[in-house]
Amino acid sequence: MKKLFSELRSAIMLTLALAVVCCGIYPLAVYGVAQIAFRSQANGSLIVGQDGTIHGSRLLGQSFTAEEYFHSRPSAAGNGYDATSSGGSNLGPTSQKLNDAIKQNIADYRTQNQLATNALVPADAVTASASGLDPHISLRNAELQTPRVAKARSLGEDRVRELIRANIDGADLGFFGEPGVNVLQLNLALDALTSK
Amino acid sequence: MNSSGWIQLALFVGALALITKPMGLYLMQVLDANGKTWLDPVLKPLERLTYKIMGVRAGEEHDWRGYTWAMLLFSLASCVFTYAILRLQNFLPLNPQGFGALSPDLAFNTAVSFTTNTNWQSYAGESTMSYLSQMVALTIHNFASAAIGIAIAAALVRGIARHSTRLLGNFWVDTVRVTYYLLVPICLVFAIVLVSQGMIQNFLPYTKAKLLEPMKISVAKVDDKGQPVLDQAGKPVMEEQTIEDQTIVQGPMASQVAIKMLGTNGGGYTNANAAHPFENPTPLSNFLQMLSIFSIGSGLTWYLGRMTKNQAHGWAIWATMTILFLTGAVVAWHYEAAGNPIHQQLGVSFADGNMEGKEVRFGIFNSAVFATITTDASCGAVNAMHDSFTALGGLVPLFNIQLGEIIFGGVGAGLYGMLVFVVLAVFIAGLMVGRTPEYLGKKIGAFDVKMAMLTLLILAMTILGFSAWAVVSPWGLAGLNNSGPHGLSEILYAFSSATGNNGSAFAGLTANTPWYNTALGIAMLFGRFLMIVPIMALAGSLAQKKLVPASAGTFPVHGGTFVILLIGTILLVGALNFLPVLALGPIVEHFLTAQGKLF
């Protein structure tokens, strides 16, 4: 019984010790170094305009529907790209609901980009991402949207393609992961170009 | 299945092989109460101070009962600590979003979940947890439960390596040393690297960003009491709203995520977990997170080899794990890359695979491999939504969990789970030649085999029992997001994940109900503690045995024959337990997908 009591004391004191070391000193040390060495990343990689407006984070996608913007992927986060409720659709392979949504997305995508009614559509353009905040679209998806955006902005397609290339987040070190076009940054670049 | 995927896979296995020995060597130093490490000048005083306030004498060792009791008491104390913070969250500091307290059932579920290294989450982190809850109530278990797992594994390895003794080491010393010398230093470096990739680490309130293109949505109109307004036909009246802002999540994320991966905890800071661009910003951060999940489990196989003075045995275990990992990874990758024929009929490009619930920066390969790794280990972090995987792509993570998460596994838990299968394998080998089975110079007796079988039976019975109960109960079916065979898979996955202390989910299931929270909480407790007790009894029994010299008839526990026998034992037990229910879930769903059947 005395042994049990002394072991219980050890258990409680260890809980408190770990709370101080692992939940106090350690996160604050990371905080300190991060704020000095990687301030922008540590605070959300925010894109701040010259007037001080926060346009968003370069890591988080936003919803776009207008003709003159590149469109992000469909999103299941809240009402779409709600960064306080990240998540996917969680619909399975035999889901009627998912089937209907993809069907609708394909039809919309073909109409918006004036594709043939039997044209194959990039998968990322018609499916919801895991986070609902995917900042990227595939290169193929961006290419298919290029004529529409160029026309809506009265720009040459090659000029738009140049901007796309400038906003590709390539595979890390050349082979990790997949390259993607950062939609928010691309659209900001387009706005900057056309407003001049 | 492109060449870049194969290169990444080869790199991953290569990197894992490379870190195994250094990690194992370091574990030798950390898990020796008198071991010297290069961090001693900084950490030794802290270690001594901790023992002093705990009233622990570092030289004393526990027998298996003492070791188990200490582990249970520590788990209990830290679980209560977390429960209290979650229930009092609204009164505590570091809560800039003003989140309220958690309900009793959710707080119970969450406290148990983190205590047991499961990190099942019935809540969405970014809209539920204050910074204090994330950083203290949850993160403490990311460290503690990982340290406990490694301590238990070390005790079992000592039981195998020692002879004619009752003593297995000191639980307090193991836990403190693992936390201070192993987990905290690696996490410090890892967290900073993650921040450099774009992970957040701050205490700012959530940031409001102005959307480039304001969003028009239609929402149901509500009256003053918050009830939806209905028109004459009884349908809700919709009104148009414009959303001008995006609210960006902030907080101390990197410090929590580093240990969440290294300690195979897996509980996400955000709801989308490692799929969230903040929580896994780049493919490089993704690679490092995957490597960190396996790193300690891999090092422990080397530790086993060194401790038992049979390094070939350690590498045989490593090879078994690697073969099983590669098999799962390639199968999942294949089916995700092949995509969903139903959606391809509609006009989705064949070359792109199944992108529903996946992120562009990771693509098919890194999503499939992450899902395999997170369930080989008991991590449970996800970078893609397993619920939206193809039928057989989703079968891989589910079956990995049901095998007992012994493929590198949860830190420590993977090794002690695998050693149960080793005992079973040498027992089967003994039966085949009609000899008393031996393992590393110890005769394996009836008691040892009983303890090994007990852990396997508890795993299967808890998963199947709770799943069966849920599928015939209104509370079980109420939470489903998908119908047809996929609905069964959702429930089965939930109880497999809880019992296996994994924490990933077929996340469509709405599990934040009193019934699910409680049932899953109990499954997690069974899966953790009812497994550890027989394993510690096994360790105690092995430690007391005398050594018998190896003879010509001794079955060697290294080399190809042993690896094949071990893999065979694992797959046989897994298949016998779970094939019937898997046939009704993912397997039948695969055939229905081919026929284009929808639910």
Describe how the helices and strands are arranged:
The complex is a heterodimer of chains A (196) and B (599).
Chain A: H1 2-37, H2 39-42, E1 46-48, E2 54-57, H3 96-112, H4 123-126, E3 136-137, H5 139-152, H6 157-166, E4 168-169, E5 180-182, H7 183-195
Antiparallel strand pairs in A: 1-2, 3-5, 4-5
Helix pairs in contact in A: 5-6
Chain B: H1 3-30, H2 40-54, H3 64-87, H4 104-115, H5 131-161, H6 171-197, E1 207-220, E2 238-248, H7 254-262, H8 283-307, H9 311-338, H10 341-346, H11 363-376, H12 391-402, H13 413-433, E3 438-439, E4 442-443, H14 446-471, H15 474-478, H16 485-499, H17 514-544, H18 559-595
Antiparallel strand pairs in B: 1-2, 3-4
Helix pairs in contact in B: 1-8, 2-6, 3-4, 3-5, 3-17, 4-17, 5-6, 5-7, 5-13, 5-17, 6-7, 8-9, 8-11, 9-11, 9-12, 9-18, 11-12, 12-16, 12-18, 13-14, 13-18, 14-16, 14-17, 16-17, 16-18
Structure description:
The complex is a heterodimer of chains A (196) and B (599). With 196 residues, chain A is mostly helical. Chain A folds into two domains: 40 residues; 150 residues, no CATH class. Helix content of chain A is 50%, strand content 7%. Chain A contains seven helices and five strands. Chain A has a three-stranded antiparallel β-sheet. A two-stranded antiparallel ribbon of chain A has the order 1-2. The longest helix of chain A has 36 residues. Chain A is elongated. The relative contact order of chain A is 0.12. The model of chain B has no long low-confidence stretch (mean pLDDT 95). With 599 residues, chain B is mostly helical. In chain B, helix 3 packs antiparallel against helix 17, helix 5 packs parallel to helix 17 and helix 8 runs antiparallel to helix 9. Chain B contains 18 helices and four strands.
